[in-house]
């Protein structure tokens, strides 16, 4: 696995989320309801579900043309996946950290020119990490 530098914002989200400890929210399996960020800010479970579905599309695009997914990833699921990690950290800090680690690896791969050969595998790993993290917060993952 490649090592990539951590972004300051990612570390801040994780620290705040871990400090929360008992924060969390209720989401239904369909992705309806509200999740809660550390500090009590509500997050739409529907928005998190939409981001997971967008990640399915980004995964397919990565397999087809990894050099062309950078904009789609950052304009699509990226920010909501960070929110997912922050919400999940209250219930499973290790899984939340795993999601962030896999995201950093994928971000490094799609930012490289050209993207390395394992970029499609990185996308698949990210989809798997998203699915596992969705389960932690009580949302049924989409079928990609």
Description of the molecule:
- A hairpin with a 5-residue loop joins strand 2 and strand 3.
- The two termini are 24 Å apart.
- Helix content is 60%, strand content 6%.
- The relative contact order is 0.20.
- A three-stranded antiparallel β-sheet has the order 1-2-3.
- The radius of gyration is 14 Å and the shape is elongated.
- The chain has 144 residues and is mainly alpha-helical.
What coarse outline follows from CA principal-axis ratios? elongated
Low-confidence stretches: 1-30
Series of secondary-structure elements, N-terminal to C-terminal: HEEEHHHHH
What is the straight-line distance between the termini?
A: 24 Å
| Rg from alpha-carbon coordinates | 14 Å
Query: Within the largest sheet, what's the order of strands?
Result: 1-2-3
Q: Please, what is the average pLDDT? A: 84
Which sheet architecture does the biggest sheet show? 3 strands, antiparallel
Q: Find the count of extended strands (DSSP E, 2+ residues).
A: 3
Indicate the structural class: mainly alpha
Note the main attributes of this structure.
single chain, disordered N terminus, mainly alpha, 3-stranded antiparallel sheet, 144 residues, 6 helices
């Amino acid at each position: 696995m490649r090592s990539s530098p951590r972004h300051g914002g990612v570390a801040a989200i994780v620290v705040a989320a871990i400090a929360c400890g008992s924060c969390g929210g209720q989401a239904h399996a369909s992705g309806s309801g509200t999740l809660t960020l550390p500090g009590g800010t509500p997050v739409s479970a529907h928005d998190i579900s939409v981001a997971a579905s967008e990640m399915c599309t980004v995964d397919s695009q990565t397999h087809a043309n990894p050099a062309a997914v950078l904009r789609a990833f950052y304009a699509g699921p990226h920010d909501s996946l960070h929110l997912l990690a922050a919400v999940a950290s209250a219930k499973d800090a290790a899984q939340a950290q795993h999601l962030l680690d896999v995201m950093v690896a994928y971000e490094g791969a799609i930012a490289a020119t050209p993207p390395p050969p394992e970029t499609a595998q990185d996308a698949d790993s990210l989809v798997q990490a998203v699915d596992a993290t969705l389960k932690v917060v009580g949302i049924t993952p989409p079928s990609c």
